Amino acid sequence: MSIYDFKVNDYKGYEVSLEKYKGKVLLIVNTATKCGFTPQYDALEAMYAKYKDQGFEILDFPCNQFFKQAPGTSEEIHDACVLRFAIAFPQFEKIDVNGKNEHPLYTYLKENCPVDTGKKIKWNFTKFLVDRDGNIVNRFGPAEKPESFDAKVAELLG
User: H/E element holding 7?
Assistant: First the structure.
């Protein structure tokens, strides 16, 4: 099993195979629009703009599990993020990242991350960095701003 075996739904509900991102460096993040970390969208978009032409993608998965900080439909969340933060990176359907309805992608990310930060996602804006071969390289906590691992992304892009 690899990260490319997973299928997810985009914010409009259309199925997308992660195989589409094979050969790219990925940053997979669970987000929320009403969270104290929501301003990280600006830094995420800046990172995406800086590296997208070098094979970098951010995969944004809104999650309403943490104090219901991602209210609304997936399309409403997407529209708000485009309007407020001008995001251009792919955004997907709202999912659960923990518990009985946890998306299988997040089960895989947590179980295969080489950094032992526990198997539970603790909050919004937890970020997983994946190399061009689909290997999970690192996990960054919600408080870790994208600027703090910019050099690592640049290194993976080579």
Answer: strand 7-9
